[in-house]
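I hope you will forgive my troubling you with a question about protein structure. The matter concerns a single protein, recorded as an amino acid sequence and a row of C-alpha cells. Please examine both parts with care and let me know of anything in them that strikes you as inconsistent. Thank you for your consideration; the sequence and its C-alpha cells are set out here:
***
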Amino acid sequence: MKTINIIRDFEDKDLVIDSLEEIDERYFHINGLCPISLKEDVLSIALTESFSNLRLIENIKKTLQKKTRLFKTDSDQMISLKKDIFSSLTSKKKIELNTFSEHSCIAPIAENLALFTGGLSEIVKTVNRIIIQGYRENATDIHIQNMKDSVIVRYRIDGLLYDSIHFNTNMYEKLITRFKVMSRLDIAETRLPQSGRTTVRIDDKAINLRVSTLPTRTGEKISLRFLYGTHDLLSIKDLGMNKDQIDSFANHMSVGKGIFIIGGPTGTGKTTTLYSILQKLNDGSKNIITLEDPAEIEIGCGITQVQVNNSFGISFSEGIRAILRHDPDIIFIGEIRDRTSAQAAFEAALTGHLVLTTVHMPTIPDIVERLYQLEIDPLNITSSVIGVGTQRLVRKLCTGCSQKIKPSSTAKRFFADFELNIEYDFSATGCAACNNRGYKGRTGIFDNRYIDDENLISYFMNRGKNIKRKDKYIELAKESFNAIHKGITNSEEIIRSLW
C-alpha cells in the first residue's frame, strides 16, 4: 500500500512566496494543504501529520504536470503559513482577477477556486469559452464526455443535443479538474458521482450552474445545467397559452382552494409553467410555500421554497404535513410520486388550500387513471380537483428563414386521424440567425380541462380507462394545428414532440 512520502520537516527557508503567483493557493488551503514554493517543474507542499489523502496529491501532480515535494508541519505552523501566503498573494492577484473579468467576460463569483490564477491559464480560458458559448446559444445543458479519440462538448438547445466542440484527449483531465474546482468537488474522487454548484458572471449577469460528474468506462462525464433565476422566468402570456386558456385558468384559480395537476413527459416544461403561475398568484397577500426535489431555481420574493431531503426525513409526504403547520394559502408540490405523497396533497386541497403539482403521465385520461391507481378516494378526487392539464414543448420556427410549403403525406395522415385538414406547412430552412438549425426558441402546447368540462367529468366517471388514443390527444392535436396555421412551428416538430 502506497504511503505519503515526506521529505522532512518544514523550515522557514523552504517558503518562497514570489514563486507561487501562478498557483491559486486557496484551493490547497481548503483541502488541508499549503503550497510553499514552485521551482521549474517541482511544487513543494506543506501538510500536517494527519493528512492522508494520497489520491489528492497524485491528482494535483497529474493536473499541474509537476513533481511534488512534501514537507511536514504542525497545526500552528500550518495556520501561520496560510495566513502569510494568502495575505501576500491576494494583493498581487487583484489586478489579474480584474483583467480576467474584463477580457474573458466570465469570472467566478465569491470564493470559486482554481488551481491556476485569474484568466491567465489556457484551460481557464477554454472552460470560459465553453460556458459562454452555451449561454450565448441559450443552451439548458452542457455535456462533456471523453471518447476514445476525442473529448466532445455537446449543448442541449431547444430540447435537442448538438455536437459543438471536439478537443484532443490530452485536454480531458484538465477540463474535468477545472470544472470540479469551480464547483468545489473533490478532484481526487473519480469513482463516485458528485454534484455541486457554481456561479459565474457573464456580461455583468450572475449565472448559476449545477455541475455533476458521472464515472463511465472512458472516464468521468461532466454535465452542466444552467439554473436561470427569477428574472428569466416566463410570464403566463409568454408560455404559449392563448387568451381563452389564460382567462379560463385565471377564473378557476380565483377559487383559491382545490388541486390543479399538470402532466406530461419529462422535459416538457411542467415546472416552468407552475413557476409562472406562482409568480402570477404572488401578490403579497398569500403565504406561498413550495416543496421541491431539488429546489434549484429561486422563484421570487415572498415565496418560501423547501427542498426534499429523504436522508433527514423530509420526504414529500412529511414535507407537506410540515408545511400545513405554517398556515399556507398556496402549496406547490414538485411531483406526486407515490400513494403517500398523493394522499397528503389531496388532504391539503380538501382542507381549504390551493395545491399545484405535477405528475409524469402523458395525457389527461392517463393522469386521471393514475390518481385511481394511487388509491385516492374517488370522492376526494371529484370534490378537490379543480383542473387537470397536460402540455408539450415544441421548437419555434426561425422567423428569418422559415418558408411556407405544401404539407407532406405524413403530415396529412397525422392530422387526418384527428379529422383536421392541413392545407399548408412550413420548412425549417436554417440561416445564420438560428445557426442553420431552422428553429429558435420553444413554446408550449397546452390542453387544460377544468371540473366543469364535460370530457373531464366523463374521464373521472370512467376512471380514465377505455379512452381511445385519438381522444386522449385530440385537444393537443388541435392546439398544434393552430400553431402550424399561425406559422409558429411545423408538422415535423409537432409529430416529433406530440408522440
About this structure: The chain has three domains: 6-100, 105-227, 232-498. The two ends are 56 Å apart (CA to CA).
